[in-house]
Amino acid sequence: MNTRTLLKFLTFIFLLTTVFAVKAQTGGTVAGKLVDASTGQILDFATVALIRKTDNQPAKSMQTDLQGNFKLTGIPDGVYLFRATFVGYISFTKDTLNIKGGNTVNLGAIKMRPSKGVLKEVTVTAQRSQIQLSTDKKVFSVEQSLVSQGGSATDLLSNVPSVQVDVDGNINLRGSSNVRILINGKPSALTGANLTDILQSIPASSIENIEVITNPSSKYDAEGQSGIINIVLKRNAQTGFNGSVSATAGTQHTYNGSVNLNYQNKLINVYANYSYRKGRRIGNGTSQTNTIDSLKRAFNQYQVNDQEFRINSNNIRSGIDFSLDPKTTLSFSNNINIRSYDRFQTGGTTVSSPLYNQTINRNNTSTGNGNNLDFNLDFSHKYKKPQEELTANVGYSTSKNNNTDNLNTAYDYSTGSFTDYSLLQNNYTIGRQHNVNLQADFVLPLNHNNRLEMGYRSTFNKNDNNYLVDTLNNATNIFVPADTLSNHFVYNEQVHAAYTNYQQSFGKFSIQGGVRLEEALINTTTTTLGQDEKHKQDYFRVYPSLFLTEKLTDNQTLQLSYSRRVSRPRDRQISPFLDRSDRQNYQQGNPFLKPEDTHSFELSYINYWKALTLTSSLYYRLTYDNIQQIQSNYDPSGIISLTKFENLKNASNAGYELIAKLSPSSKIDLTGNVNVYYRNIEGDPTLRVASTSGYAWNANLTANFKPVSKLGIQLRGDYQGPQVIAQGRMKSMYGLDGGLRYDITKTLNFSANARDIFNTRKFRSVRTYGDAESSTVQSSDRRWATRIVLFTLAYRFGSNTPAGRQRQQRRQDQQQDQESIPDDAQPGNGGGSQQGQGARPATGGQVRAPR
Hints:
Elements: H1 3-18, E1 28-36, E2 47-52, E3 58-63, E4 69-75, E5 78-85, E6 92-99, E7 104-112, E8 131-133, E9 138-141, H2 153-157, E10 163-165, E11 171-173, E12 180-183, H3 195-201, E13 207-213, E14 228-233, E15 240-250, E16 254-264, E17 268-292, E18 298-325, E19 328-352, E20 357-382, E21 389-413, E22 421-447, E23 450-473, E24 478-481, E25 487-506, E26 509-528, E27 531-553, E28 556-567, E29 578-579, E30 585-588, E31 596-608, E32 612-633, E33 641-665, E34 668-681, E35 692-708, E36 711-720, E37 723-725, E38 728-730, E39 733-743, E40 748-755, E41 763-770, E42 775-783, E43 788-798, H4 802-820
Parallel strand pairs: 1-7, 12-14, 30-33
Antiparallel strand pairs: 1-4, 2-3, 2-5, 5-6, 8-9, 9-13, 10-11, 13-14, 15-16, 15-43, 16-17, 17-18, 17-42, 18-19, 19-20, 20-21, 21-22, 22-23, 23-24, 23-25, 25-26, 26-27, 27-28, 28-31, 29-30, 31-32, 32-33, 33-34, 34-35, 35-36, 36-39, 37-38, 38-41, 39-40, 40-43, 41-42
């Protein structure tokens, strides 16, 4: 570890230790508690704020604690407006609070009324942050990500703190690709083996927010070594009829459009979202491979690759909620994704060796189409006892993917006694996937200080992939089946789980312990040349979790947590078929691959100041049976490499992450993320993989500027430092994105953004591998996508426009003021509305989308 990196690491540790200091404050105080108006349930991590009446600027804000309490202290003398906001609830406004001579205003128990949906419009002048922080998760708001507008779900995820996207479009969380992806809190066929292409097909405009949970409790799926990323799709549930439309056009022939419609009354809520995306992604790369064989002969090859990916997709989400009675809701929702795509890959390889010199030219094209269908039936019932609730879900999803690869490779020899030839090959992939989810969760409050949660979930997943290959017979000029290259792979998985969690509060200290019991039944069948190869993996495991939380002050929370996680190998990772579609780089799965077993520890600290929120975490993950892609030489010359999945003994990650949200004024908002970690991978001599370790770090900074009320500007920069991998090292990478939005009217806005402005994002690596007779060093650089610029025009209409919303909100706030304010509080009147900004921890056995 060099001196510069060490100094940065020590600086971040110093920040972690110094933020515990709390300075004494003088001035007035505003205190109270937020609860659900109908159930009495406490609303923790809701946002309360004071706004100065003189200039309409924010003066102080914070989030409620685990018991829903808040206490705003150190308030200068003056007249203020009080506002409480929470996701899924009507905002509460209390006007004309007089602070004078350090007095205390106790607002008592403020009853918040559910809104049946997320209020999305903001009428205060303060810049709303794009991320909400709490000790157990981070919620990223799509609406505030200007640099992602007009892009895909992949573009949006790459802008979320703690999340990275690698060169192949795979999602990484805190440096680990073993992360669980959920859609609306549930497993889906959308998150199957072709996840990369599907995320590219989902427009960012159809996503409500992204939730990141780095150390989930036992009530969540145990799947995912580094945690859970939940993609919440839009519902747009607001009273009356409302909607919005948007259109995007940009470079690289990119065009997007979306339409959102919603109608709601006291009995039903009907919503629909349609999004269209047409995009193009251009990438390229180079590779230099040098091999020394057993006779000390040098074989060298240099590759140049260019690729283009085009996609057309249609995404439809709709649903209806029925209020069977004031405490019972039945909901039906569906999501349909229909897409087609084309890939074009060209490249050349030059090979020099003592035996021959060779040039290999490739010209490959791929065409494909697919669809995903998701259907969910949800039931929710709240009992008379506050916080007691039963929820249930029946979900079914299915996907189809058809792909055709036309591979054209020409081999030309300039020396040696070899004959030039061409290889023409067609690959046909027919994929089918089916998912079923059955789930029930129950929350039972025992008294005001403790509660019990329990639930059950069963998932059934079948993935069927038929891979057929034809090759051209040069003698007859006819394509004939290549049975040795074809295979049929079927993956069947059942996971049955039951969990229980118990939470107890002792004043400012609370403890939550839980255990999840999971039985996994996995069967695979690979058929090649009419012969079946079957493999079976059945195992039962216990996944405990423990959370210790201390409310140090009204603005500070400390949490120590532990959980056990699992990462199950799937699909191509365990298919024994040798994939030779890339003639220089073969791939093969491992049917004997064992699941990873991870023990995760995390110490989190969150502090709220007037203009600054800090969330910092020390974390440690120890993973047994660590799954890695191991590269070796398929032939002694090293011209062909073989990549195979193997279990190494163990791997560990220890790190420190800091997320800071700074709002020095209503015109500036900064969100920064720094992750410094030490990675250790224990090697395996039998696989010729040496142990490796080293420090790494990544950081990003998002800045929002609002120079005038109608104009917003956003810049985002990111940096990924060098890091170790199983057989080498990844080099550093950095990039800059930018966007702006201008409100033409109160209902019409224009935005523009550019991603990778300076075309600097390249994935570069150096790998060293070999066997007892040869050794190979490979240096490569690859680009996921080049710079793209997009322009978007958006219009909203209906009851969610400022005029309609103000009339409706005024009536609701006036009614709530009359019922919620205690007799000793000062009288006030209703005001505007604001979207809830608190990040509420999900309950039940799934990550729950806001209603």
